[in-house]
Amino acid sequence: MAGRGTTQQRDEEPSGGGLPPTAWAVLGLLSFPGERTGYELKKWADASLRFFYWSPAISQIYAELRRLEALGYATSRRSGPEEPRAKRSYAITEEGRAALASWAGSGQDAGPPVLKHPLLLRVWLGHLTAPGHLRELVAEHIARTRGELKEVRDALARAGEAREAWSHPEVALRWSERRLESEVELAEAMLDDLERLGRTGPQPPGQRVADSPT
Amino acid sequence: MAGRGTTQQRDEEPSGGGLPPTAWAVLGLLSFPGERTGYELKKWADASLRFFYWSPAISQIYAELRRLEALGYATSRRSGPEEPRAKRSYAITEEGRAALASWAGSGQDAGPPVLKHPLLLRVWLGHLTAPGHLRELVAEHIARTRGELKEVRDALARAGEAREAWSHPEVALRWSERRLESEVELAEAMLDDLERLGRTGPQPPGQRVADSPT
DNA sequence: AATCCCATGTAAAACGTTACATGATTCT
DNA sequence: AGAATCATGTAACGTTTTACATGGGATT
C-alpha cells in the first residue's frame, strides 16, 4: 500500500520553514552587523564557517541569496545603480531575522554531525594498500591539519577586537581550534596503531585476500 | 555547439577512474571476505562506515551496486533463481579489487575531511537564541554522542574475534572511538565557554528578535 | 490476521559542484 | 598594457535523498 510500512506519517514538517541548512547558514552570515556581497560572504565562509560547517560553492551562495530575497528574508541594493553586473550588497530583513531565530531556537535536536573523512576511508581499506603509503597519507594529513590550525588561530586573533554580536562566533572558532588540535592527536595515535600493526602482523607475502582468483 | 564554452580544457582526469567516493566505499564494503546483499551492506555501513564516512541511503547503495556490476567490478547472483525481486548477493571481482587497490594507493592526497556540524551552526548563531536553549542543545548532543560511543565500543568488542583482513577496519573503529571521546570533551569545554559568556556579557533584555510574534 | 522486518527497486526532486561567460577594477 | 583579482551570474551535470511501490517471511 502506501509508503513505508502502512502508516505513512507526514514526517513531521521539515520544521523551521523547510529550507536546507545551507540557506540558514547563508542567512546566518547575513545576520551579523553590516551588509555584504556574495563574494565577501564566500570569503568569510572559507575563513570561518568552513571549520565546523563546510563552505558552499560561490554559485550556490548566489543562488541562496536570490532565494532568500524572494522569500523576503533579505534585501539587496546595487552600488552603481544601473549596470547589469554591478556589485550587489545584501542585508537581512526583520522577517529574515525572525525566521532565522525561530529556526535556531526551534528544532530541538539539530541532528547528528556528519563527517566525511577520506583518509579514514583509505585506512579502513588498508588491506589493499602498501603500509608505507598509508603512513605517508596520515603524515600529510597531519601537516595539512596543522596548517588549518594556524588559520583558525589567526582568525581567533583577529576576533580579539570583537564586540557583542561576535562572541558566539568566537565560541565556535574556539571549538574549531580544539577540534583541530584533537584531529592532530587522533592522527598521531592512528599512526602508532598502524606501525604496531605492521610489526605484529607483517603480511608482506601473505595478502591471502588477494590471491583467491575467482 | 558542443556544450560548454570554447576553451574546454579536459580537467585533468578525476583520477583513479572517476567514480565518486561513495562508489569506492561500497566496493570497499564488498572487498572484505564474503558476499552480501544491498540490505546487509546498508546495515554494515550504519554500524561502522558511518562513524568516519557517512552511510549512503539504501536506494543509493542499490544504484551503486548496479553501476559496479556494469563496470565489471562486482558480480551478483540470486538465491531463489527465478523470482523478480529475490535476494541478490554481490561479490567483488578481481578487476574490482584491482581498481579499488589502485584508487586507494594512487591519489596522494585524498582531500581534507568535511565536517557538517548542525550544533555548531546553532552555537555560531547564538546571538539569536536564548542562552539556556543553547546549553540544552549541547547537553543533548553530549548524550547522543555517548550513545554512539557505546555503539562503536560494541562494534570493537565484536571485532575482537577478527582475523587478518579485519585489522584495518579495527584501526578505523579505534580512531572513531577516540574521535567520539574527544567530541564529548569538546562539547563539555564549549558548555563552559557558553556559561562564562552568560556571566560576562549578560544580554537578557536585548533579545529583540524573539518576541515579535506574527 | 495484522504487523514488523526483510528485500528490491523506480521516479522525481532537491542539492551542490564544475565549467563557462563576462566585464570592472586594481596591481605591476 | 597585461595580469590578477573582484564580482556576478547561467547551464549542465552528477549526486543523493525522499517518497512510492511491491511483496515474502517471521512474529505476535
SSE inventory with pairings:
Two copies of one chain form a homodimer.
Chain A: H1 21-30, E1 36-37, H2 38-53, H3 58-70, E2 74-78, E3 88-92, H4 94-105, E4 114-116, H5 118-124, H6 131-158, H7 167-200
Antiparallel strand pairs in A: 1-3, 2-3
Helix pairs in contact in A: 1-2, 1-3, 2-3, 6-7
Chain A binds a DNA duplex (28 and 28 nucleotides) through helix 3.
How would you sum up this structure, described in words?
Two copies of one chain form a homodimer. Chain A has 214 residues and is mainly α. Helices cover 56% and strands 7% of the residues of chain A. Chain A folds into two domains: 21-105, Orthogonal Bundle (Arc Repressor Mutant, subunit A); 118-200. Chain A has a three-stranded antiparallel beta sheet. In chain A, helix 1 (21-30) packs across helix 2, helix 1 (21-30) crosses helix 3 (58-70) and helix 6 (131-158) packs antiparallel against helix 7. Chains A and B meet through helix 1, helix 2, helix 4, strand 4 and helix 5 of A and helix 1, helix 2, helix 4, strand 4 and helix 5 of B. Chain A binds a DNA duplex (28 and 28 nucleotides) through residues 1-6, 8, 11, 20, 22, 37-39, 56-60, 62-63, 83-88.
